[in-house]
Each structure stands twice: as C-alpha cells, then as structure tokens.
Amino acid sequence: MTQVQTLLAVGDMILGGPDPDSNFALAGPILRKADVLVGQGEAPFTSRGIEKYYVEVPTEIFATPSCDPANIRAFANAGFHVITLAGNHIWDSGVPGIEDTISGLKKHGIAIAGAGMNIDEARRPAILERNGTRFGFLNYNCTGPKLTWATPDKPGCAYVQVVTAYELEHPTPGAPPTAYALVLPPSLEEMKRDIRRLRPQCDLLVVCLHKGLGFVPAKLAMYEQQVSHAAIDAGADFIIGHHAHMLRGVEFYNAKAIFHGLGHFVISKRPRDPKANPPWAVKQFVEKHKDLLGPYVEPDPEYPKHPYHPETLQTIIAKCEIENGSISKVGYLPCLINKQGQPEILKHDEKGQQIFDYMDRITRAANLNAQYEWDGDEVVIRPDASLKTD
C-alpha cells in the first residue's frame, strides 16, 4: 500500500507577545499531524538587537520589534520542521537578530532556509527526509530592502532583486506614470542555479518567496508570476508565497501549484520602543501608508491583538499530499483569526464558505487558473482550463 505523506505550509508569523504557545492552541492539533510543516518567520528572535526606525530607507519601513528567543519553543511545540527567514524584516535587529534566530531554531531542531551569516549560508537549502521521501526548501526575499540582503561578508537573507521602472504614458508634466516591477536577470539566474543544484538531492522541491504588494487585495505585482514560473522551469515542484498579509489566489503552471500568498498566520507583537519609534515617525508612517493603501492598514478596534484590517483575518493552511515522491493532491484548510489572535481552522460551514468564496473571488480577479471544491472540511484545488493565465 502506498504511503501518503502530508506537507502543510502557513504564512508569516511573529511570536513577540507573551504565552507564545497560545497562538497555536486551536490550530496546533492539525499542524502537528503533518509529516512536514513549514512557515515563514517574519521577525528576528533576540534580546541583543537594536530596534530602530529605518529613516535611511526611502520606503520608510518600520523595524518590527524583535521576539524573545525563548518564544522559539512555540514553533517546536506546534510541530514546525522548517522555518523560512528571507523577508523584509530579517535585518531589523541587525547581526544579533540573525545570529540568535538561526541558533535558536537549530537548538530546537528546526531547519531553516533563506538566511545566514553570509550569502552562501542564506542560499543553502533545508533538506528533510520522511519515510524515504526527501523534501528540499529554498527561500528568497523579493521585496527588499537591500539592507536585508546577505553578501559574502554580511549576514542577511537570500534574495531575488526586483526593480521598479516608471514610464510616463501621457506627455503632460506631473501626469501619473505607469510602474513596472521587473526582475533583474542575473539575480533570477542565481535562484535558478540554486534550484538546479538542489534538484538531484530531493524528491519534492519547494521554493518559498517573500513577495507581493502588502495589504492590497487580489492584485499580483508584475514580477510575481515571472519569478514563480522561472522557479518551476528550473525544477521546483511547489511554490509558496507570503509577505502581503492578505490572501492571494492560486495558479497552476506546467501542472505545478503556485500559492501566490498564504496571508499571515500569527501576528503577536510586543509593544514598540517609543524611543526607537518616536510618535511623530509612527504618525507619519501611518498617514503615508493610509493614502497609499486606503483602508487596508486600518485595524479593527474589536481585534486588539490583530493590528491589521479585518480582511487580513482570513488565512489558509496550504496542503500537499505526496505519494511515491510526487504531489498527488493539492488543497488548503480555511482559517479565520479570532479576537485572541489565534488562527482557527474552519469546517465546511458558513465561516468556511466565507474563505472559500474569498479565495475563488481573488483568484478570478487575478485571472489565475485554479478552481476549488470542497472535500469534506478541506478544499481541493485543481487547474481549470477555462481560466487562463495571461
């Protein structure tokens, strides 16, 4: 009888608050059943880092407060086998943050991908074996800032470099330009070389990408499919996206599934240091991003432990079933984050249908070629030839 193995994947996680195990109180029993469980570590774990407001970064990115290194145990207790670290906040506590995060995860027996004390370490895959099936993971930050990137002699994350080009579509001074987000070919080739190098070493090759437009519903940036398709062309079997803090649709490319964004899964932050993040800077940041993103940066006052728009309460757990080293079934478990900040796995009921309908709507809005159907309390995903991807 063929043994079926299960891979579960979740999006961004920050374990900065007290009682970190409580974040997984509802989802934990299902997460711990996975043969392989992977999630994105959004914030560093250290008590040595310096939290600051990045005034030198043109996009005015806030440093996310570092998490207590002791909180890493909650990842282990929840059953995580792999934590990916390539993201826009990996450098927020400097070298100590990267060093302590990596050592803390390894201490708890959790494999890491996407970050290291130099670029070679950051691009090194995580490889796990389960009952004769080898799983390989690579992880890249596509969002910047450059400050987060590892170099031959600087800690940081693996990355794919995306640049923005602007074209004035109307010959009128001050007219709004059209923006193009494009991947630089040398950077893309580096990622493809990593994938080709890993391919002979594993049966299932997973590429995790920190990508997309934060807090913008449904829309994919131009580069997202370019990077995802290139990864599959190079040999990847499965693509996991995160960073946008909102769900994204699913597509199939060459019969391989791409989850363009899992949303975040747990966001539990400790309070910011007012000296490192002065009130004037916080106010300036919120006002600027409110103009840019509309209501999607406005939190719901009824959810004090969830500092984002209600639409971001919707999330999913991506699921793959693997037989004989190949993916035989792809789907997801619908989830909703409650007022305690805990993701709750839903059933095929009114709340579960809310997530199902949302996923279907944003997939169609992005012109992606996936279709969804219920299978008990889980959702199965298959390609739909009638929904073509441009």
The number of helical elements comes to 8
Poorly predicted tracts of residues? 53-60
Helix content: 10-25%
Write the CATH fold name: Purple Acid Phosphatase, chain A, domain 2
Task: Specify Rg, calculated over alpha carbons.
Answer: 20 Å
CATH superfamily, please? Metallo-dependent phosphatases
Report on the biggest sheet: 10 strands, mixed
Give the oligomeric state of the chains in this entry, treating copies of one chain as homo and distinct chains as hetero.
Answer: single chain
Q: In percent, how much strand structure appears in the residues?
A: 25-35%
Number of strands: 20
Mean pLDDT comes to 90
Helix-strand category: alpha/beta
How far is the first residue's CA from the last residue's CA? Answer: 41 Å
Reported CATH architecture = 4-Layer Sandwich
The gross shape turns out to be globular
Question: Secondary-structure element order, as H and E?
Answer: EHEHEHEEHEEEEEHEHEEEEHEEEHEE
